Hints:
This protein has helices at residues 17-28, 44-52, 67-80, 104-132, 152-172, 190-199, 203-212, 222-233, and strands at 8-12, 32-37, 57-61, 86-89, 135-140, 177-184, 244-247. It is of the alpha/beta class. The protein has one domain (4-185, 220-243): Rossmann fold (3-Layer(aba) Sandwich). A 7-stranded parallel β-sheet has the order 3-2-1-4-5-6-7, sandwiched between helices. Helix 1 packs across helix 8 (222-233) and helix 3 packs parallel to helix 4. The longest helix has 29 residues, at 104-132. It is globular, with a radius of gyration of 17 Å. The mean pLDDT is 96.
Amino acid sequence: xxxxxxxxxxxxxxARGIGAAVARRLAADGxxxxxxxxxxxSCAPGVAEIEAAGGRALAVGVDVGDSAAVEAAVARVVDxxxxxxVLVNNAGILRxxxxxxxxxxxxxxxxxxHLRGAFLMSRAVQRHQTEAGWGRIVNxxxxxxxxxxGQANYAAAKAGLQGFTKTLAIELGRFGVTVNAIAPxxxxxxxxxxxxxxxxIDFEDxxxxxxxxxxxxxxxxxxxxxxxASFLVSEGAGFVSGQVVYVAGxxxx
Length: 253
């Protein structure tokens, strides 16, 4: 199947930032796109933008950490757009703190959204992919997977997603499904703005400081990640699987 018009993608955490940019890009590539987020109404602007450009889109509210809710959400996508064969696991939250200040809830909330959410969504979607004999899963990791002060929970979750990615690539490859991860560096989003606010730094100064340490001398944008997701979802990426692509403006160890 080479016609993107026949393909359906799900993007989680699609109300804003990276998720919204990925949804727009996949729609521009010709896929029908389901925008999933915790609050369904928050995805309405993205759906309207895609439809205004001639695409097909659907907003679905879901808690990705809730198994029954995930199954119901995927069923709604099937009914509204068709069986999904592309999944971008982007949903994420921050609960940053140093280890001695980090609460049980801080840890559990991040693990639930990032890791459990990717697991539940992938398990629900893979049955449609394997039936079709074709599929793409893209998981959003982070350079924080390499370690980052104040993010023991987030770093552990993002590192876990890399192991999850490689394992699914092994398990699902024989069914025509590729699984890859994107590990963004500093991307200018509401999430990084919240980090700047947490540490008491003006966001513009925060970005300038980050850019000075990046070889390409700028911070990233959600569209940078969307371009990479577009490639990994494409027919041309059919021999790329189990990889972690660092999109960070320079090399990462």
